[in-house]
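thought: fold this chain, then report.
action: predict
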Amino acid sequence: MRTGRREAYVCSVLQLCSERFFGLAFARSFSCEHCGVEVSLDAPGTTHRNHCPSCLWSRHLDRNVPGDRKADCAGGMEPIAVTVRGEGRWVLIHRCTNCGRLRLNKTAGDDNVLLLMRLAALPLTMPFVPFAADPEPAGNGNGNGTKPRKPRARKNATGEARPA
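observation:
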């Protein structure tokens, strides 16, 4: 047997054995359930790829540790934000559309940069705290919603009211 054929045979036997005995399949890609793009698992910068580089959506696969694939939910995970770790590494924040759980996911080198920038700028476009107060709040125009006060008459040194 040639060397190339022997390696292919050994790989196919290992794959068959692991599929039968451990229930594992050696898939090298997956299809994104959100946008339908075929995604390669070999991505620069990550070892447990489970998000689409095109739309950044993921599936709820991991329960506790990245790569454990023990989650029962398997719902779609929407990218809701981006954060930056101390070493400058960008991390996606996903929220499961079924159970609501939040998960962190390392970005990969082939992720859609435009979508990453859009997620990074999202807090600036939709702030939690308003930048400007309402210019005319409800009430009678004095700013606190109560009746305006009448100005007090000033008194002179003798205690009599001065004309205004």
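thought: worth noting. Strands lie at 29-31, 38-40, 58-59, 76-84, 90-96, 102-106.
final: tokens above.
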